[in-house]
Amino acid sequence: MKMIAKMKKRYTASVIALVLFACLLFCAPALACYNWYGFPMQGGEHPQFGNGTVANGTVIGGVYYDAGHGQTGEGPIDVGPYIQTFNVPDYDKVQFARLYVLHVWAGTESHHGWVNTSFNDHNLGNITLLGADDIGPDCNKKVWSSGHGVYVVRYNVTSLVTTGTNNASAVTGKLKGNFDGRITAIGLIVVYEKKGMSKTRYWIVQGHDTLTYATSGHPAKDYGYAYFNGTIEDPNEWKSAVFYTLWTVGDTGDTDTLWFNGDDNMLCEGCTNYEQGPYFDFKKIEVKNDTVNLLTTSGNYAKYWRDGDQYVHWMNAVLVLGKESKPDLIVEKIEEPVLPYYNYTLAVVENHTYNVNATVKNIGTGAANKSNVTLHAGGTQIDTQQVPSLDAGARKEVRFSWTPSASGNYTLKVTADATNQINESDETNNNRSKFIDVLPEVEADLVISPNDIIFLPAFAWHTANNKTIIQVDVTNNGTRDANNFDVRFFVDAAEINNTQLSVAAKAVKVTSFVYDAPKGGPYDVKLVLDSADETAESNESNNEAARLLKVIEIRVRSTHHYGDTTIYNAIESNWTDVEMFDVIRLVPENTTPLDTLNSVAHVRPFSANPVYEIDGIEQDPKGPIYWRLYMNGRYMAGDYRQYSEYPLRDGETMHWDFQKQVGATATASFTPPATVQSYNYPYPEPFTHGYWHSVWNTTIICPNASSEYIQIAHNIRDKLVSSGVPDERIDIDTDVNVLGTEKKKTNNLILLGTYTANDIINELNLYHEYSGMVVFYRNGKLINDYDKSEYERGSVVQAFDNPYDDGSPGTNYSWNFPGPVIFMASGLTDSDAKAAAELLINRTDDLNRFWVIKTPSAAVSFDTGSGQYPSISGIHKGNFTPKYDLEVHEIYTYPCTGTGGHSERVIIYDGAAELINASWEGYQGDYHNISVSPSVMLSAKQNYRYEIITGSYPQIIHNQTLTNEYGTITCSEFIDANGRRYDDWIPAIKLF
Question: Do the strands 544-560 and 582-588 form a parallel or antiparallel pair, or are they unpaired?
Fold first, then answer.
């Protein structure tokens, strides 16, 4: 099999999925500029939506295609614009040019925003992004929106492209909802004419193809195609053929595959590894050169298989055929000069040595051998570095060293292939320049402000180190070095420590102190620079700064699989034991979850995700299994920036759980938005501290007209109040009264009773996956959506989103929108529901998982119930089958009234094996019970044989077989004290 990739893995496909989605894709017409599955790269240009082949032909010249650097946190207007630079080859005329803002992230398809794009100082206008509301014939034709709110916006810039550097920028903002606004890439495609160049054949096929697993009521889409229609009369006349394409938000480490002209021609496997930047991959792959020839005379196409990716957006496919295959080296960018070993460089000063980093890229169609790249400053060659061989589309960063000996304005010029070793398709585009102002050495100026003092928790792995790190950013804003000056650290006017430091001109260096601050404060922290005035400065009045430190207590813990605290050992930890942690520690107030996590665990970021791995447990997108953060029991949905933005307050809890989405292989999948495990913390959450410091009132809702549940609700309220929830924030009501009230939308709700008795539980049950309700009711059974287990009896306590603040249940997937929560203590029977409520009152230690299911066996075991007279002692033999797992500690025999009825000996067999052999200890104490020590576990639905010898007058069930909610028991033989035999005498007993 032919394959152009680094690795070769097996290829799998589902014929059924192919047929299903082919019908779904081709039989159903697109109805809007929003389409869940996007806009495929097939056929001619769509008359309304513009996807398909938008340019196709032959030109004496070339095709330029390049795209951005991945999602970097830029995007929303309060953060800044996304900026991308392009290097367009020299041309005589532009035939076609399109600019694409690729993957503007909304958060969901219901959030609205806007994007404003500029290209070469031309504002391209403001475009509204309306997601799923952008429907009908009047939708915005420049916008393709798909999935959970991913936008591609395109512009015709044929008249705006210039030779050389082209600058694009885009900024976004919110209109409705929590519009995210981050941008992943900006791309530019240019078809140009240039005399003297050879002939080029090209296809520009644009589109936004969304591939996804089955979710949110939509079937899975596992593959996509891009077609290059037309005939190539003689493929051999073309020396080179290059295929360009890109993806966003694919999962790293998966086995997705890209193919060209059939299943024998794999171009890449694991294509989405964020090689160009976070959530972004741009590929330029040769499909014909001196050693590879995948072209056919007609029907050329590419195929992409999603495989392990949860979601992936495949965009724009370009095929370019050339008469010659040559590399083309350019200098893609020159970084600002930086001082080595310093945290920040503010400007360039004479007589200082700087690193100058530049990136060389091969934008041609052929590979480039190793070459030299030079740095010139003011026309003088400063340094030379070697660049290794580069395949088409590859890039390499090089580092130069520069020491300007005098002040003034300098032009830094970096030249690729400086000695003309490479035969390139374009020899005119090897240079790039940057203008630098070099300042003269005059005076130092040490500066410190309150914002330069940063409080961080000190590190201790899986335990509490209650010390605080006082991190100080020391700035020398002057143009002369400041050497060996003192930095003094004070708390409440007392000097705690000091150190010596040197900071070069126009640079920032970080130093730190450690302080053991008790809980409380505020403490007045002050830093003083150069207190002895040994450094001559242009300004001596800015060397002191102070900031108040307040120390709080928080809890940080890790679990896996929704609350499991056991050692983790699986493929995600490379089959290595990893301990979970649970630490209560002191931290500075306003410390972030990310800083706190880094103070107790080893954390590895990857791409845009700052918590990709904790203590060696690495996320597995194929799982899909991820680390999720719960603040005070509430899932922190949204983007990762919140990890570094949430300011912690005293008593709050952050809980990291390594988990697979519920229903990830079903039609609907979700991350559970809340956990009842948080109810068992020092504070019941989120009733105490809430989420993002919003604490909602709580309403405990009982089935209508139930005085018994009203009393249970009062007991729950007493429990919450005793744990720190203000009494005035809690009220008790019935389902009928609450249905039409505002507090149903604005409050935390605690729901009691069965789903048939409580109308609110019944309503939520119909749309369980929309609010993140893991356990639901169906056909009279309790269903655990996580492992698909079913229960005919049982209690459940679970937490999920209150969907009423986001509209009616079933109108949107509210689990992803943080707000008030719902705690549900319910069950299949009334007794089960009351047992669930008891967990919120007196058995909170049992709330040791995200959701808790208790079967009746946990409370009552196996009980025949009472029997009747006539009675006599004797030997009972038979079989019984418990319905639930049963741990036997005691065996009770029901006595006839006024008698000493009891069992003298009980033997229980599993086949021939004797599991229990327990004897009576005489008429002392509770002589109706026989103890079983150690206890014995009996399995649900397992048939056991019994032999029971009774004394005095035990109660008898005069049937051959008894079946009840606890299981089935059958009499095979009873021989009474007089030797008479029966087959319908069952002893009335209880095993518990």
Answer: antiparallel
Per-residue confidence (pLDDT) for residue 856, from 0 to 100:
64
Contacts of 291 (CB under 8 A, 6+ apart): none
672-700 pLDDT, tens digit per residue, is 999 999 998 889 999 999 999 999 999 99
DSSP 214-240: SBTTB--B-EEEEEEEEE-S-GGG-SE
Q: What DSSP string runs through 823-885?
A: EEEEESSHHHHHHHHHHTTT-GGG--SSSEEE-GGGTT-EE----BSS---EEEEEEEEESS-
Distance CA 170, CA 186 (A): 8
Q: What does the alpha-carbon distance between residue 538 and residue 541 come to, in Å, rounded to a whole number?
A: 9
Contact 88, 162 (CB under 8 A): yes
Residue from 848, 765, 832, 764 nearest 804 by CA = 764
3-class DSSP state of 814: helix
User: DSSP secondary structure string, 239-297?
Assistant: SEEEEEEEEESPPTT---EEEESSTTEEEEES--S-SSBTTEEEEEEEEESSS-B---S
List the Cα angle 58/60/64 in 5-degree steps: 80
Do β-strands 446-447 and 468-476 pair in parallel, antiparallel, or remain unpaired? antiparallel
**Chain centroid, CA 347 distance in Å:** 38
φ/ψ of 503, rounded to 5, equals: -135, 125
| Per-residue model confidence as pLDDT tens digits over 263-303 | 899 999 999 988 888 899 999 999 998 889 999 999 999 99
**Residue pointed to by tokens 């922190």:** 636
Kindly indicate the confidence band of residue 499, based on its pLDDT and cuts at 50, 70 and 90: very high
Instruction: Report in angstroms the alpha-carbon separations of 265 from 227, 293, 308, 849.
Output: 15, 10, 20, 48
d(CA 496, CA 568): 42
Helix%, strand%, coil% for the chain, nearest 5: 10, 50, 40
Cβ atoms within 10 Å of 164's Cβ, excluding its own: 14
User: By the 8 A CB rule, do 684 and 735 touch?
Assistant: no
Burial of 395 (0-12, 13-18, 19+ CB in 10 A): middle
Tokens of 761: 């539980």
For residue 664, the model assigns a pLDDT of 54
Q: Under a CB-based contact definition with an 8 Å cutoff, are residues 554 and 592 in contact?
A: no
At which residue do the structure tokens 């009369």 appear?
Answer: 233
CB atoms within 10 A of CB 376: 19
Question: Whole-angstrom Cα distance, residue 755 to residue 290?
Answer: 70
The pLDDT-based confidence of 926 (bands split at 50, 70, 90) is confident
Report whether the peptide linkage leading into residue 605 is cis, meaning its omega lies within 30 degrees of zero.
no
HEC string of 45-89? Answer: CCCCCCCEEEEEEEEEEEEEEEECCCCCCCCECCCCCEEEEEEEC
Other CB atoms closer than 10 Å to residue 977's CB: what's the count? 11
pLDDT (0 to 100) of residue 2: 36
DSSP state of 765: H
Tokens for 344, please give them: 């920040």
Task: Give me the numbers of helices (H) and strands (E) for the chain, helices first please.
Answer: 8, 65
Listed in sequence order, the DSSP H helices in 630-703 are none
pLDDT category of residue 78 using cuts at 50, 70 and 90 = low
What would the mean pLDDT of 172-184 be, rounded to a whole number?
90
Evaluate whether 380 touches 400 at the Cβ level (below 8 Å): no
Q: Of 444, 231, 265, which is closest to residue 352 (Cα–Cα)?
A: 444
971 contacts 875 by C-beta, under 8 angstroms: no
CA quadruple 214, 218, 220, 225: dihedral sign: negative
**Contact yes or no for 253/622 (Cβ under 8 A):** yes
